[in-house]
Amino acid sequence: MKTRKIRMGMVGGGKDAFIGAVHRIAANIDGQVEFCCGALSIHPEIARESGEMLFLPEDRVYMNFEEMIEKESKLPADKRIDFVTIVTPNFAHFAPAMMALDHGFNVVIEKPIALSLEEAKLLQQKVQETGLILCLTHTYSGYPMVKQARQMVKEGKLGAIRKIMVEYPQGWLSTLTEREGNAQAAWRTDPTKSGKSGCMGDIGTHAAQLAEYISGLKITKLCADLNVVVQGRALDDDGNVLLKFDNGASGVLSASQVAAGEENALKIRVYGEKGGLEWNQQEPNTLTLKWLNEPAQIYRAGQAYLSDIAKHNLRVPGGHPEGYLEAFANIYRNFALTVSAKIHGTTPTEAMLDFPRVEDGVRGMAFIDTVVDSSQSDQKWTDFKI
């Protein structure tokens, strides 16, 4: 059977955008994806300059996503794109995603999936109607040692899970930087562009997804306290959440963007009857296992003793760092292999299907809604409702 790379178009991600470059690098690492076209900026000159810098054909540098999707859908099957990657701020996720799905294109989208739970549910409904694939880039689930942790929990190595503690401290919003020319801060702290939550929408959703991904459990209720620490800020920049999971386990989730001096210190600890595990995003090649009445163990990336699912997401021998870009690339690679299998009429493997999808996006938006509702409520617990 003749195979080919799957073809990508991008919405957003022009020359001055951070996350667009990350997506392009990640998509390119495994040689599964060809970057073919883009509507890279709402500013025509930046769109043209970005397309030229990225060596896109002039006739496939578009001025807006509507033009890109319409024109690409009319190209011959051997030319047009297979999927659209959306790397715009939250408020500009829904419209291009919906239009792409309506025109037969699969979608990769930055998290959170949309501006509201209602938009997320509409995208889920469209995915179900079309049979297309929507991938959500919850990057941290792509790390090999996160997958090792998930597999060990799945196999019952820790026994029944009792406690989950996940924290995500950053310090980059410790001042009112959104009023000092920081474009990334400006849209993330603007309710019209970011949604009803700042810190919890931006990084709290990552922490919640990681807790559910590793444990295999679902949050059923929570008790939240959101804070605006920096005076004059429109959205929360700090928060703490108590969690209850569907097996009765309890949890604590803390997220802050005003933890001065912190970089990107996402850390998770999961405890069961027999022991616990700990993973830190800033030391991603290491997974620590802690056993009841036994010595602790250190698991390292690149080793023969790892699970098959972890090995599937490794690229280099032990002792060589595998970091953020490689984790991001694992999501793209698994998505690309799944799309390619569909194109060629084959069944994707379980390992291929291991990437966040529209269901994760809906749960992320429900998490944001529930956290905000809980923080504004006098009740101790708020049910997690989709």
Q: What this model shows, in words?
A:
There is one protein chain. The chain has 386 residues and is of the alpha/beta class. The chain folds into 2 domains: 6-132, 3-Layer(aba) Sandwich (Rossmann fold), CATH 3.40.50; 144-316 and 363-383, Dihydrodipicolinate Reductase, domain 2 (2-Layer Sandwich), CATH 3.30.360.10. 35% of the residues lie in helices and 21% in strands. It contains 12 helices and 14 strands. The chain has helices at 18-28, 44-53, 65-73, 94-102, 117-130, 144-154, 183-188, 191-194, 199-215, 308-312, 324-343, 358-376; strands at residues 6-11, 33-39, 83-86, 106-109, 134-136, 161-169, 219-227, 238-245, 250-256, 267-272, 275-280, 286-291, 297-300, 382-383. It has a 9-stranded mixed sheet with strand order 13-12-11-10-6-9-8-7-14. A 5-stranded parallel sheet has the order 2-1-3-4-5, with helices on both faces. Helix 1 links the parallel strand 1 and strand 2 (33-39). Helix 9 crosses helix 12. The longest helix is centred in the C-terminal third of the chain and has 20 residues, at 324-343. The mean pLDDT is 97.
